[in-house]
Amino acid sequence: MRSKERDVETKMRQYAAVCMRLSEEMEESGKKERQIRALMQIALPPRTRGNSWDFALDQIGYLGRYNLVWQVLWVLLFWYLIHHGIPYLGAGERENEILILVSLLPPLLTLLTVEEVTKVYQRSMLEIEYTTKYSLQSVVLVRMLAMSVFHAGIVAIVIFGIHAEADSEIGTLLVYGFTPMILVTGILTKCMQCCHGEQLRSAGIGVYALTVVLVVAGNTKYCGWYQPAYRKAWCAVCGAGIIFAVWQFGCLRRKLSSIPLHCLNNGEKHVPDI
Amino acid sequence: MELVLDRVTKQYKNKIAVDRLSTTLTEGVYGLLGENGAGKTTLMRLICGILDINSGEIKCDGEEIGSMGERYRDLLGYLPQDFGYYPNFTAMEFMCYIASLKGLDRNYAKKQSRLLLQKVGLGGEMRHKTKTFSGGMRQRLGIAQALLNDPKILVLDEPTAGLDPKERVRFRNMIAELGKDRIVILSTHIVSDVEEIADWIYLMKQGQFIAQGTLETLREHYLSVTRADGQGGLDMNFNLEKLYLYYFSEGEED
Amino acid sequence: MVLEKMIRKYYDEIFLYCFHRVGNRAAAEDLCQDTFVSFIEHYAEYRHIGRTKNYLYTIAGNKCKDYYRKNKPIPVEEFPEQGTGECLEELVVMRQMVSGLPDELREAVILRYFQNLKYQDIAMILGISSSVAKYRVKKAVERLCEMEGGTDEVKRERR
User: Fold this and answer.
1) Complex ipTM, two decimals?
2) In angstroms, rounded to a whole number, what is the distance separating the alpha carbons of residues A25 and C28?
3) Which of A175, A180, A166 shows the shortest CA–CA distance to A210?
4) Do A19 and C20 touch (CB under 8 A)?
């Protein structure tokens, strides 16, 4: 009888082993995975809120595509001018010419940033954008930061690219390249707090024209701040410029935290214009 | 959820738009009735945190809304009076953009957008550019975006403007449903909207609440007021319109 | 995710258990899913009950019992295609004999030989003591031997 029992037991175990095939089939057909996923849906309620990164990436995705076109053109312009030069610029000295170009061209990218960012709070302004979790402040901040950082990267890369051609040290080139750009950014961020649209564009052109004048003047015997002796001063100005730009960023952000009165244009017909 | 307004005041250079308003709001539908310039829109903007309060405070569950910042806005859904829009976005793209501003998860946003657009009757226009929309359609889009983040506080400024009667009925049903578990504040000129669905009605004039209550209490108020004025006894055909006209026609009678 | 790991670990086992109890693959899939749904819904409360595995078996067992009440157990129609013809026939016979056992014994035998559980676990799942569990399994095996003896005679008679 013992062997009979063992026989029965063995057969049952064999049967069980054969049946395992069923669960393998379920796995192969994908049904198991689907069932488990359905279970997880019940266990974990679906996410309704994203995180800040998602928001930032989304915003960057909404930046105009044409910006890329302008950025590429800028790089090409930079390359062309460095190699072919501008007549009479730098009083004929190659080195000066390079330094002037390195100072003059980056601020153009800043103008692009300002143009793109002001679109957000200056076109057919949506009141609702002041009431969302990531309000207008955040939108402006993200776009401005993203573009500024990207531009800073481009500038750094092209400067490294032409380093071989220039006699100056890489540090000098970087400081000469970034300082005007940072100063222009700071000044225009201040302007963004006060004006919009056409006015702002004019301000941008005006600031850039001033930059050109200052840079060119720096290469004449009257002003000469492109002389080597002034290198240390440039570093100081660069540092001050960064602080100034960051401060203005903060001011702009604070300004955007409540709706500008000129945008309140409906309903309160008895409220006087302010 | 409780929203407390405590002596809220908003003043422009020489005019007081909202004058020491105090009230408490809990789940339900609140109607704000009043003429243009009464301060309705200003009050709504204050509740949404768009305008800064000159004095007084607004508290949400005991916390001052200014200090809550993002967390408060996460609870809000707002439909402004002149609903602006981005002309070149399609309805769906617009909803997704607003959803991104509201910090919603992308997948959830897509699902909600589709659902809400269908709910307001724009299901067929999802891929059409908003510049092709009629006024009523844009208004419905505005209502849809206000609901994206499933707000606990829904503020609607003249939401039925531009809607035809059928749409208006559909809207009323939607609001009545929503009012069951959230605070809905709706301002309008259209007395019948408020009559049908509001649990509590405020009559606003020159920045103050000149009367408030349920439809019943207002009816009694009206009766007592007209009796006092000697304008006749029991008026069995009270409706809100009469009360409204009573208060807001006063200027004309002078 | 702890919950997901647990589900993945025991899914196959519970599915097979349901299949052995009700004999029908489609029903087994549904019952297995229902078991886990129940498990998730009561996850917060379960912690006191003991090992997850046994808890899952208990839920599954109850679900299967409810299923019988609503449907007459369908004899095994499907059989995984494996092995040679003769072996298969023997196993089918074995399966049918197990179905023929009284409920108490059948439960015990499925848990012991098809699911390979220890007596301790079987006892906890069925809500009986270890010795009762051992007794039932033994009794079941005896019955099966008798039944087999019967079929052997039938076979002999055929020849």
Assistant:
1) 0.83
2) 13
3) A180
4) yes
Q: Across-strand partners of B76? A: B153
Measured in angstroms, the CA of B105 and the nearest CA of chain A are apart by 4
Instruction: Note down the domain range covering A14.
Output: 2-43
Report pLDDT digits (tens) over A107-119: 999 999 988 887 7
Q: Please report the sign of the dihedral spanned by the C-alpha atoms of residue A208, residue A210, residue A215, residue A219.
A: positive
Element (H, E) at B31: strand B28-34
Q: Which domain holds residue B176?
A: 3-213
Higher pLDDT, C29 or A172: C29
A27's CB contacts (< 8 A; 6+ apart) are A33, C12
pLDDT tens digits along B42-51: 999 999 988 8
* Residue contact C19–A19, C-beta within 8 A: yes
Instruction: Answer whether B101 sits within 8 Å of A50, measured CB to CB.
Output: no
> What are chain C's partners, defined as 3 or more CB pairs within 8 angstroms?
A
DSSP per residue, A56-83: HHHHHHTS-THHHHHHHHHHHHHHHHHH
From residue A189, how far is each of A120, A195, A243, C149 by CA, in Å? 14, 10, 13, 97
Q: What pTM does this model have?
A: 0.70
Q: Which domains does chain C have, with CATH numbers?
A: 1-74 (1.10.1740), 83-159 (1.10.10.10)
Q: For residue B104, what is the DSSP state?
A: B
Is residue A35 located within the same domain as residue A108? no
Question: What single-letter DSSP state applies at residue B90?
Answer: B
Structural contact between residues C4 and C40, judged by C-beta atoms closer than 8 angstroms? no
Q: Are A93 and A227 in contact (CB under 8 A)?
A: no
* Residue A156: half-sphere exposure toward Cβ, Cα within 13 Å: 6
- The HSE-up count of residue C140 (CA atoms within 13 Å, CB side) is 27
Q: Are B44 and B185 in contact (CB under 8 A)?
A: yes
State pLDDT tens for residues C59-103. Answer: 999 999 888 888 765 555 555 555 555 566 777 778 888 888 888
The domain total for chain A is 2
